[in-house]
Input
Amino acid sequence: MGKCAWGRCLFRQLQSGPIFDMKLLVTGKGGREHALLTALAESPSRPQLFCWPGSDAIFETAQRTTARDLPSLIGFMLEEGIDLCIAGEESLLVTDQGLANLCEAAGIPCWGPPRESAQLEASKEFAKQFLVRHGIPTAGYRAVDTIEEARAAVTAMPVVLKFDGLAAGKGVAVCQTMAEAESFLEAVLVQRQFGPGRMVVEECLTGPELSVFCSIVDGDYQIFTPARDYKRVRDGDEGPNTGGMGAVAAPALVSAEVMAAVERTIIQPTVAGLLRDGLPYRGFLYFGLMLTPQGPKVIEYNCRFGDPECEAVMPLFGGDLAEYIAAAAVGKLTPGLLEPRPGWSVCLILASAGYPESSRSGDVISGLEEVEGVRVYHCGTRRNARGDYESNGGRVLAIVAQASTREAARDKVYAEAAKVSFPGSQRRSDIATLHFT
Ligand code: AMP
Ligand code: GLY
Output
């Protein structure tokens, strides 16, 4: 079968109604992918689901593959006749070969951008240049190579320093004092803690953060229900940054005026900018925003859904996510295939002992079977020899509840999460309370 033949075939089928027996493969293994796969499994088009690398919990919903690495994953998809690849996390999109680039060469539609567009997430400087070029509000910045240049660029406190490369989530420092800035600059630009790379010195913005997700299909977009995540490990937004300790999502999270400003000043110019720069994009795009006194500004782009925001947002959509993504990946954005639900969704993360500095595996989880009326997504678990789930990573479980009010969703999530425990489990007690006045 020739290049893009799958895509054309899929597109023809989509024009004549829902496709049954569609085979979809999701890449990733965490809570976000578990939430995506759950929503895909609930789709009326009833696709066959596969996941790589996946997890024991995910394999209750999706089938395993024989892939060992990215090239063998492409081989598996061709052999199995996978109709569509959905990128859950970003790491494969930004590799030298690029998951979406390899899929395109193999004629497999992919939901997730090619590596040249995924630079929006992979390179802080690339994103900053894009934002400035297209007049999109963001913090002022300078990109530097050496510690001397960095010192000269630090003109006020607080300041935000960002290493321009892969740093396992540790490449950003919000510095309150010159001493803090000095020690981060020394570690990154002199000791080269993260290897070679430039540094972005950025103005520190203030205001509540907001995560906005869009589906982007060439020049079209659709905005999902907005969310807020809680990045710090302890209550009151104290302690070190984590992958996210919880999230809250609702249409009413921010006012219609704020969402209109986000759409007009940020989303529309981003979509237009991608087209103007010749950066192809079909996939989720995550806008990490700060609602500053001067209006919403972009802190970062990610070329994927957020985690744990995805766990909170997905249950707020009915309809047919599988058919929706299958159509979008071949160029047809069809918002009517999704049915947004009103109300609030709250996601609480249970993390393992030592997180985020370290994590502990092998702590047996109890109480999972007692939980009712909420969704439980597995972020980092595995089954032990007795068949019980145990911790296997920093973030272990995401417990998610929906209700018509924020308070009711929060009460429900905390009541059900209280039934689930494992040695050393950490959870915040203020998810969905902080940042609401
Ligand atoms: P990033 O990896 O760019 O998303 O940054 C990680 C976190 O650092 C963000 O979620 C913010 O909480 C914080 N941050 C990043 N940039 C800024 C900024 N310019 N002003 C204030 N806080 C920031
Ligand atoms: N919730 C933050 C992230 O997904 O990057």
